[in-house]
Design goal:
Elements (H helix, E strand, L loop, with lengths): L1 E8 L3 E8 L6 E4 L4 E4 L7 E9 L1 H11 L4 E8 L4 H10 L7 E4 L6 E7 L2 E7 L12 E8 L7 H14 L2 E4 L3 H5 L2 H10 L2 E5 H8 L7 H9 L5 E5 L5 E4 L5 E4 L12 H14 L4 H16 L11 H7 L2
Parallel strand pairs: 1-6, 1-10, 2-8, 6-7, 10-11, 11-12, 12-13
Antiparallel strand pairs: 2-5, 3-4, 8-9, 13-14, 14-15
């Protein structure tokens, strides 16, 4: 029996970052419509580019491992020259890779991330996967369930069944595809979740709310769907949570020179969950999450800024 603090279920992929020059006349940002426009048919120079490792499950597992949690990733990857880079990256961070499935008939998944004026635009390709995962021989305190590509429903059902039968706690962070299918498809997972991580836009999508309501109203509405603890991140406004007693907590952001925002939510979740596993108060967990997210946004890549345990403890004093 293999035992873990957290098993992270979701995506592991390659991220290609392109930093666009702000003064380039062939690039235009319309802030009113939130549209980034580039001149059609032109050769657009970039300020910098890099190939990084990513995916929500990958990012959170690495973040937790750096904070001295015993973690594993359950994901399906291809079997090409990039897949070994994914495996090597996880192993170098002491994340267990025994539950990575390699599909010889498909390539690795990729995202291309355009960074412009401190914001990122993500182009993501979800490769068809079967996700034939198994929980046989696994014991874990927590499951972190996050985004998957197509054919995700059976994995969610399997995870739900395992959480119920094993008594493992479930932290849930639904991805874009899951949110787009609507509440009915994820309501059974929400109902048994011990913890829910979403940003404000995702919260509104789950609840299908048309009118503006406060963050506290969002928290309570989400908690009524099942999660014992709900955490909402809201950009520059900070993060908001409601605990099992119905008490509200807030955490301000840490001001930092933002380089790139990819992985900030994953960094927050890993900091928060590591603190909870360490039996620290929720307010401290929110602080750990905020510190981790801030450090991640100060450097390109979803994992390069993730903090080790000693540094996290020093910064949270």
């Amino acid at each position: 029996m293999l035992s873990f603090d957290v098993i992270c279920i979701g995506d592991a992929k390659i991220d290609i970052f392109l930093s666009l020059l702000e003064e380039n006349p062939n690039i235009h940002l319309n802030r009113d419509t939130k549209e980034l426009c580039v001149a059609y048919g032109q050769k657009i120079p970039v300020d910098a580019c890099s190939l990084q490792l990513g995916g929500n499950a990958y990012n959170v597992a690495v973040g937790l491992a750096k904070l001295q949690m015993k973690t594993a990733v359950m994901a399906e990857i291809g079997k090409d020259e990039f897949s070994q880079k994914i495996i090597n990256g996880l192993q170098s961070e002491n994340v267990n890779t025994d539950f990575l499935l390699q599909n010889a008939n498909s390539p690795s998944s990729f995202s291309v991330i355009l960074s412009f004026q401190q914001e990122r635009t993500i182009f993501s390709k979800h490769i068809e996967r079967e996700h034939n995962f198994s929980f046989d021989g696994i014991s874990t305190k927590w499951i972190y369930l996050t985004s998957l590509g197509n054919e995700w429903e059976k994995t969610y059902e399997l995870t739900e069944a395992f959480a119920k039968s094993s008594g493992s706690k479930l932290a849930f962070n639904p991805g874009t595809l899951q949110l787009l299918t609507g509440y009915q498809k994820i309501k059974s997972v929400l109902a048994i979740s011990d913890m829910l991580f979403v940003n404000k836009e995702e919260a509104i999508t789950i609840l299908n709310i048309k009118n503006q309501i406060s963050n506290n109203e969002l928290l309570i509405s989400l908690q009524k769907l099942g999660p014992k603890i709900v955490v909402i991140t809201d950009g520059e406004n900070g993060s908001f949570a409601v605990n099992e007693k119905g008490e509200f907590l807030t955490q301000a952001i840490i001001k930092t020179a933002i380089v790139e925002k990819t992985g900030a939510g994953d960094a927050y979740a890993s900091g928060f969950l590591a603190a909870m596993l360490s039996n620290l108060p929720i307010q401290t967990a929110m602080k750990w999450g905020t510190i981790n997210a801030s450090a991640t946004m100060a450097i390109i890549g979803a994992q390069n800024g993730l903090l080790p345990r000693k540094e996290m403890e020093e910064k949270s004093l």
